[in-house]
Amino acid sequence: MTEKPRVLSGMQPSADSLHLGNYLGALRPWVQSQDSQENFFFIPDLHALTAGNYDPKVLAERTRTTVAQYIAGGIDVEKSTLFVQSHVPEHAELMWVLSCLTGFGEASRMTQFKDKSAKGGADAANVGLFTYPILMAADILLYQPNFVPVGDDQKQHVELTRDLAQRFNSRFGEVFTVPQPSIPASGARVYDLQNPTAKMSKSAESPNGRIDILDSDKVIAKRIKSAVTDDGSEVRFDRASKPGVSSLMDIYAAVTGKSLSAIEEEFAGKMYGHLKVAVAEAVVAEVAPIRERAQELLADPAELDRMLAVGRDKARAVASATLTSVYDAAGLLPSR
Ligand code: TRP
User: Fold this and answer.
1) So what's the pLDDT on residue 312?
2) In the chain, which residues have pLDDT < 70?
3) What is the pLDDT of residues 116-132, one digit of tens each?
């Protein structure tokens, strides 16, 4: 029997709702991989504290809503390990050990810190933002994953994680699996409806280019119907000269499973408006049940807490075993 690869990833609770890009690009492929991989997925709420001026109520709310959407979207808490970072104290504990292995200059080279601290002015950055990549290394190494799917902006942090794992292993003995960064599971790329050459994003200037999973059917349909389209009238896939129509076709293909050429055939002789109606219907049919299920879960905090406790217990079993080996190897006296 071959072992399934172990995969770990996290997504910050920094929006009120997942958008269609998060769903088609990350959540859905993640759900589909639950039988072929051993998945650990967590909400890095400790990382969210690095935004110094965050609102605590909003953070707690977003953490809950994010979890609810993951479960509603098909994450099975028995198959995958889904948990909240702050529920597993080993993250902060391992981070300390790793901090003592990280060079000051090494941490200073992290480009995301440089970008973020430059934007807010040097005084606006806190030490947590500086050590954030070391917390991320702890998040990863505690679970001994083989792969860590991350976007380009996080690759450097995974490289640091690998360096720290190798450094620890060669100094204190083989404790850590050295993980590989991997391209996120092959999900669909979803573009902004108002600016179809940019990826759909929670930080876009206008929410009108975005489809949020928790939006009402009406809002979703309205956003799709006011998506920008291109010159001409033919429904044809051509990312360079027809980015608007191509983006709508991408969404339609991802949601319905139809091929782009089948979609061109379906809309031969029809107009952009017909495509928009079909896309709106297909998207609503896909996300409305997820929204409803998420709302049910949010209305039943005891059930959501129960599922989070399942995830926490599974996560802690792995994390505490790793931390015990780390402490032992690093010369910290066992507490008996
Ligand atoms: N830093 C990641 C982001 O902002 C989130 C994150 C925290 C993460 N810890 C992680 C991702 C561990 C993968 C693995 O997107």
Assistant:
1) 98
2) 1-2, 121-123, 184-186
3) 888 776 567 899 999 99
Of 6, 7, 8, 12, which is best to mutate to test ligand 1, by the most ligand atoms within 8 angstroms of its C-beta?
A: 12
Long-range CB contacts for residues 266-269, cutoff 8 Å, separation at least 24:
267/235, 268/235
Q: Is 140 in the pocket of ligand 1 (CB under 6 A)?
A: yes
Q: Which secondary structure element, helix H or strand E, spans residue 181, and what is its range?
A: strand 180-182
CA–centroid distance, 169 to ligand 1, in Å, is 23
Nearest to 40 by CA among 73, 3, 85, 1: 85
Active site residue 116: yes
CA–CA distance, 63 with 53 (Å, rounded to integer): 17
Please tell me the predicted confidence (pLDDT) of residue 121: 63
Does residue 47 line the site of ligand 1, with CB under 6 A? yes
What is d(CA 17, CA 67) in angstroms, rounded to the nearest whole number?
A: 11
Longest dimension (CA), the chain: 77
Tell me the one-letter amino acid at 286: E
**DSSP state letters, 225-258:** HT----SSS----BTTTBHHHHHHHHHHHHHH--
Ligand 1: atom nearest CA of 135 is: 9
Q: Strands 38-43 and 6-10: what pairing?
A: parallel
Cβ–ligand 1 contact at 69 (below 6 Å) = no
55 CA to centre of ligand 1 in angstroms: 20
Q: Catalytic: 222?
A: no
Taking the C-alpha atoms of residue 14 and residue 203, their distance in angstroms, rounded to an integer, is 10
Residue 202 falls in the annotated catalytic set: yes
Distance 147 CA to ligand 1 centre (A): 13
Q: Say how far apart CA 47 and CA 86 lie, in whole Å.
A: 10
Report yes or no: 141 and 94 within 8 Å, Cβ to Cβ.
yes
Q: How many CB atoms lie within 10 A of CB 271?
A: 12
Task: State how far the Cα of 231 lies from the Cα of 205, in Å rounded to an integer.
Answer: 24
